[in-house]
Amino acid sequence: MTAHGEGKTPEMFDFDGDLLREECGVFGIFGHQDAAALTALGLHALQHRGQEAAGICAYDGKQFNLEKRIGLVGDHFTKEKTIARLPGHAAMGHVRYSTSGTTILRNVQPFFAELASGGFAIAHNGHLTNGLTLRRELIQSGAIFSSTSDTEVLLHLVARAPQRRYLERFIDALRQVEGGYAFVCLTDKKLIGARDPLGIRPLVLGKLGESWILASETCAFDIIGAEFVREVENGEVVVIDGTGEEGLHSYKPFPPQEARPCIFEYIYFARPDSIVGGRSVYEVRKEMGRTLAREAPCAADVVVAVPDSGVPAAIGYAQESGVPFEMGIIRNHYVGRTFIEPTQKIRALGVRLKHNANRSVIAGKRVVLVDDSIVRGTTSMKIVQMVREAGAKEVHMRIASPPITHPDHYGIDTPTRDQLLAANKTLEEMRQFIKADSLAFISVEGIYRAAGYEARDPVRPQFTDHCFTGEYPTPLRDVEAAENPKELPLLVDAG
């Protein structure tokens, strides 16, 4: 195998530190002469799921070739010379956001290893909630880790599995891990995809001609003109070893149970033009806005979205309430992660580097600000202040998700509970903190109705919604073990 990497880790500055961080994105294609180039395009469409690093591994019939880069897909993988180093009919790739520590090249996926059965590449979206526990056990038994990613845990489990065939070894490894995950793996003969037993993390199946594709979202198919076939089912392992209908095989190694996908795919993570659970993400977000307008009406002159993720909900709010929607905040898409080690003077500018109030539609108006979530609350406070300084008569905040009261442990980088505004303050205290004239959130029941259900099933919820309810759908072994620092001293970064 050949591998290449360039660039040192930039110390990127997040101006507000108050955003839900995207997870990661995976893409794989089998049976196409332009596999690496199509993978690069697919990852470009998934760039919103992780902007810190990207990697592609391809198999050319003789050897695996791996390219990893710090930075955006378009900065590296649209270059002809890079793609030329990735020949072959099969390829897979990953875009990444680090949920723990600084992005370094050795943590960038895909990971590759030469195992007893041959070369094996793996990439992962999600987080293993027993990854630290397994990592400690593996290290104590002599395993050597080269990264701090929990994805490497599965690589070791596959390597140590007693079975002979790759598929059997992979399934044996999956049965030892817990949490939310979507894996894409590449061998010299197969492209393999797997989704966790509850389907917390997304994975979809598509076709381009006779070639099969795996991806985190359907928007990755659109960019290359591929057809969306179906979602990989919760607990399903798909094996692609050829083209056409006979090239795809499905396995169900886990006991059957109802799916519980992550509700944040609808609220925040998925691109608006993707299809999730058979529904348009854009339409669901608009319906969230409509539901919010019914649950929390407001006498106002204009509805303004906090761009970009708040836009569909704001449109829905405006349609339901009859209050006109206007572009009252303009987002600068070319600032934020491009600033490296800014001066304190630039730092003090804060949210204005990313957003600017459009005074012409705000001055003298009663404004309804619609956003997708409040995490720590510092960004909301700055935006409310900015809108007031632009001349707004009143500023009313409406949030198209319920209050976030619990951290995530399945691949979303959320603060600890003591840093979550809604976990530590009442609604009125939150309103005072962000300095809005009023504040309201969509209800948990309302978000289920917006997503197409009559109500939330209290016994078996249709979604993974622990950030709002505290009801985690899997054991959290690492969290429990971490209560004793001597038990689990290692840090593991999510896939």
Rg measurement, Å: 23 Å
Strand content: 15-25%
The count of β-strands is: 23
CATH architecture of the largest domain: 4-Layer Sandwich
Helix content: 25-40%
Adjacency order of strands in the biggest sheet: 1-4-3-5-2-11-10-12
Q: In CATH, what is the homologous superfamily of the largest domain? A: Aminohydrolase, N-terminal nucleophile (Ntn) domain
Main sheet characteristics: 8 strands, mixed
Q: Which geometry do the CA atoms define?
A: globular
Which fold name corresponds to the CATH topology of the largest domain?
Glutamine Phosphoribosylpyrophosphate, subunit 1, domain 1
Unreliable residue runs: 2-16, 336-341
Helix-strand category? alpha+beta
Number of helices: 18
Q: Could you explain the architecture of this structure?
A:
The protein is globular. With 495 residues, the chain is of the alpha+beta class. It has 18 helices and 23 strands. It has 2 domains: 9-260, Glutamine Phosphoribosylpyrophosphate, subunit 1, domain 1 (4-Layer Sandwich), CATH 3.60.20.10; 278-469, Rossmann fold (3-Layer(aba) Sandwich). The strands form 5 sheets. The chain has an 8-stranded mixed β-sheet with strand order 1-4-3-5-2-11-10-12. Strands 6-7-8-9-13-14 form a 6-stranded antiparallel β-sheet, with helices on one face. It has a 5-stranded parallel β-sheet with strand order 18-17-21-22-23, sandwiched between helices. The model is unreliable at 2-16 and 336-341 (pLDDT under 50). It is 27% helix and 23% strand. Helix 5 crosses helix 6 (166-174), helix 9 (281-295) packs across helix 10 and helix 9 packs across helix 16. 52% of the residues are buried. A hairpin with a 4-residue loop joins strand 8 (179-186) and strand 9.
